[in-house]
Design goal:
Helices cover 25% and strands 34% of the residues. With 118 residues, it is α+β, with helices and mostly antiparallel strands.
Length: 118
């Protein structure tokens, strides 16, 4: 099976929920979060974690970058969206399909970077 490496910037509360799943799945979206957006590059995920999450009370003023593998065949049903510059690419996964997306994660979700407010 071929996989695609994706990244996700998260705050402390979301990381705690992921840890509770033994780093196997992402938690359900909140009502004001209709889209789950994993990103295609670590650089972009770090930018979000560093520039947004550490300034956000809901993130606990901390940003983590997570890395994980998803079945490439499954991802073909979603378009890559470019938001901003060409290096800002992400998938938009509808919240109602997140459980199906979680089933396509191969292996564990890993923490690859952490940023905190000074």
């Amino acid at each position: 099976m071929q996989t695609i490496t994706l990244f996700r910037p998260v705050g402390q509360k979301e990381l705690d929920l992921i840890a509770a799943s033994n780093y196997r799945k992402f938690p359900a979206r909140l009502p004001d979060q209709p889209i789950f957006y994993p990103v295609l590059s670590r650089d972009y995920a770090e930018q979000i974690a560093r520039d947004w999450n550490i300034k956000d009370e809901r993130s606990g003023y901390v940003g983590y970058v997570l890395q994980f593998e998803v079945d490439a065949e499954y991802l073909r049903s979603f378009q890559v969206k470019t938001v901003g510059s060409s290096r800002h690419q992400e998938y938009w996964i509808p919240a109602e399909t997140l459980e199906e997306f979680n089933q396509q994660i191969q292996g564990e979700i890993r923490i690859v970077a952490k940023f905190a407010a000074q």
